[in-house]
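Chapter summary example: a protein plus flavin-adenine dinucleotide.
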Amino acid sequence: MNKFEYLTPGSIDEAISLLVSHGEQARFIAGGTDVMVKIKEGKISPQYLVSLRRIQGLDRITFQNGELRIGSLVTHRMLELSPIIRKEFPILTDAVTHIGSVQIRNVATIGGNVVNAVPSADGAIPLITLGAQVRLRGPKGERTMDLEHFFIGPGQTLLEPGEMLLEFIVPKLPDHTGAAYVKHTRREAMELPLLGVAVLISLGGDLSTCTEARIGLGVLAPTPMRARSAESVLKGKKITEELLAKMGKAAAEECRARDSIRGEAWYRREMVEVLVPRMARLAMVRAK
Ligand SMILES: Cc1cc2nc3c(=O)[nH]c(=O)nc-3n(C[C@H](O)[C@H](O)[C@H](O)COP(=O)(O)OP(=O)(O)OC[C@H]3O[C@@H](n4cnc5c(N)ncnc54)[C@H](O)[C@@H]3O)c2cc1C
């Protein structure tokens, strides 16, 4: 493993200016569960690691007037144990509870998970389905964008040099909204997903008409994606088993599944067809 200098700035602006001044030789490090693996495997060899761990205020979860904010340094374990998340956003509990092991979840952050941008990132798929935005700060100032548009390819995002992810903002959801996520794996523990499926459903006053449907799919395509054609199957209609099956079929056709070492495209498509209706049913139970 190559040698590097470990820098510990105490503020966001100090961290950004360190990254800018050391340019390509520097990397941010949060929990280090992705960065350190890449360094050990010789995939990257930064001379400077700029730690975010001394920066105050980025490890908070706040829920006010229906809007959820999650700081980029919030760990998966903090999300897993948060009563607010469990009650109001159980889709996030579904996702983080099965990431790595407790030891990994204790240090690995939601910000690092998303910036790492691998197609199998469990944190990204439910956040996209919830309509999350990301707040970024860099040498040119701050900007906010939809998380859905943040990814441009495996391991690639729209982050500019020196830019830091500060927080995720989930706008208020309509009443009677529920959402659920499943990570489909070959075994229970310490496994990256073969595919990840998230579904959000909002119900009208009769509790049976779908006013909003969102489907988030991960691992299948090079970046996490929404299956918008499949979503339109349900929107504005009374939900029936027949329509749920139709939505699953439409999602399987839309999902851009690939072959990889963990699974073949045909199997992934079949599982999308099964898991989309299954998550929709759970989302409806939660919505009610
Ligand atoms: C044994 C093991 C099991 C795992 N299992 C899973 C799993 O089941 N599901 C899953 O999704 N992942 C899994 N992972 C991957 C990893 O744990 C997660 O992606 C984790 O959330 C990364 O967060 P981190 O804080 O450790 O990131 P780091 O390694 O610190 O950083 C990751 C990347 O993000 C950048 N970065 C970090 N924070 C910021 C920020 N705020 N702003 C800008 N850039 C930033 C870093 O420069 C780096 O490029 C596993 C890893 C291991 C080692």
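Key point: The chain has three domains: 5-51, 61-170, 177-287.
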